[in-house]
Amino acid sequence: MASPLHFRIEHTDRGSHARVGRVTTPHGSFPTPAFMPVGTRASVKGLLPELVRATGSEIILANAYHLMLRPGSDLIARRGGLHAFMRWHGPILTDSGGFQAFSMADINRIDDDGVTFKSIIDGSMIRLTPERSIEVQNDLGADIIMAFDDCAPAGPDVGAARLRTAHERTVRWLERCVAAHARPTEQALFGIVQGGIDLDLRAASAEAVTSIDLPGYAIGGVAVGEGPALIHRVVEFTAPRLPADRPRYLMGVGYERDLLVAIRSGVDLFDCVLPTRNGRNANAFTRAGRLHLRNARWAEEDGPIESGCDCAACGGGFGRGYLRHLFMAGEMLGPILVSIHNIRHFQRLLLDIRRSIREDAWSWLFEAWPVLQDPEQAAPSLHT
Amino acid sequence: MASPLHFRIEHTDRGSHARVGRVTTPHGSFPTPAFMPVGTRASVKGLLPELVRATGSEIILANAYHLMLRPGSDLIARRGGLHAFMRWHGPILTDSGGFQAFSMADINRIDDDGVTFKSIIDGSMIRLTPERSIEVQNDLGADIIMAFDDCAPAGPDVGAARLRTAHERTVRWLERCVAAHARPTEQALFGIVQGGIDLDLRAASAEAVTSIDLPGYAIGGVAVGEGPALIHRVVEFTAPRLPADRPRYLMGVGYERDLLVAIRSGVDLFDCVLPTRNGRNANAFTRAGRLHLRNARWAEEDGPIESGCDCAACGGGFGRGYLRHLFMAGEMLGPILVSIHNIRHFQRLLLDIRRSIREDAWSWLFEAWPVLQDPEQAAPSLHT
Fold first, then answer.
1. Is position B72 within any domain?
2. Contacts of A327 in chain B (CB under 8 A)
3. pLDDT per residue as tens digits for the range A243-279
4. With an 8 Å Cβ cutoff, is A290 touching chain B?
5. Does B217 lie at the interface with A, CB-CB under 8 angstroms?
């Protein structure tokens, strides 16, 4: 059976597991490592698709959970699928809804068959199973779809038994996802490794999940509150246990340094709400750290968020003083401009990291991106 | 003294006072009749300047009242003025703050010198006089600035004495505006005719205001709640009383038919919040009337707001079903796309009206724009 996804590794770093490559999907190809902006509800918040593309983004993420609840995946299927509906003609990845069902919803029941929870829209009871999640994602028609997994919460109060159940269930559910997948020649299904911060469980999960032949694999259950040191430990441990010839996707991570650590562990694909969520909150990323644009110190500042940045905000000459004014006045253009800048910030970081891999040269990267040297970066929950 | 504004009339309609022309300002020229989108707080809500330009808009309006309160006109002056601050490099017109001070503010005192009111931002007492309004507008640096006038409220409970006082004050204040204007070779000051719905007072105001030689004149105090029939009567009466060789500007009006009536009375310049305000409320203009995009009937509709429209929303293929989804989900992109469409709707109307004037041919216009035939259109308060 022809896979809808091709992954070609072009160069592997000498000193780490990092590699540059290219993923080809039915809606186009993109270089890896790649960063996907988040368009949870079929829109990258505040941005026309052409503005998303102008940040250098070539693949975006949308969310099966939110779209299933509203407007309904069947409605989107009748519109011709997500690409046609939202006018994004490049590759799309949809998350399965597992993470959201377990983390956002008022859960009524979890059993071996699936999870029942209350809709965040109207309080109605929703049943999500591996089969239903895949049906929803088949409706949406993204190029990459994700397995429906049991996302046990993180933290010291979660017992080993619950984590083991989640791991075992995730593997069984993955088999059901594969069996339910109705469009395997059009949509690449990725499996998800769970296991929390328990490395033995991560090893067992990676072994079981990768025993099922799939076009790509993801590391889930990371950046759910455990802090950067544990994120890095889990990713460094897990990524090399995934097949080297398939794209590896680290879900919902993260800050610049988290991405770098993951890329050097062999990860190829990322999504994170940080650029857009922080953008809406007047929080701008720069190579030297973050700026809060509501701060009065910027009121009289004509310079851009970051000099030398080629995004529509910085390159367009919008000064920090103007951006501050927009946020103070509650104007939509503030979130729009800073979201654009922040997404471009991550795309420029990925550009530079790809160059470092290709040229086997890293020291210039740390000079160009002082923020990569900061070991103190927090990594709170960053998911959609 | 060289005027910063040139107005050339290129053709006058045979059957009406309508004319096509071109206004040239220090920041470029634009064809008339012209429609200005409103960027009250130095931003056309939700739209990057390049998206505003892409609607065919060549001049925009900003508001001295709002910008004086926040971030302060002195701050904008230090940024290099409004054009540099908001990155709009074409012509800008600023309203004087008169209308807002009288209509929006909690007024503390009106006297012959000016008005004292509470700031809508922090409740502090603000004093606005003709001299102060012009100083603010000199700071902002717009190409066209407006006189500070006494905008008596409309309605049956406003006595003739109050209207007469307002008229007389407006003329005296205009003289003070002229005297206070520090940048007359860079910024064109327009006088404003008041008089409410009292045609005798309108005649007196027009005569007194136009006795002062200025590069342009405006009709103020219209569309403040009096309904379309009275709007049309006042405009038809007043516009021809303004010098034919100067641009005539009808402030804060209005719906499509209101614009047409005004243009046929000889008006050249319009601003209105309708396209953006309605756009934010899911209310889309079409040639056949308005659509409310939250309506469930559009959920499964793939067609654009208006077929044949070349705006970024319709031309970009965004369907009514997707737009409805964006509004139901509270996504910013809904207001953005419908604002773009609505501004383009008005710019396409003006394009077609200019063509009708140029070709002395009107019947096709009414066929192409059924909405122009609707005499029942309401005209509530449409100001910034």
1. yes
2. none
3. 999 999 999 999 999 999 999 999 999 999 999 999 9
4. no
5. no
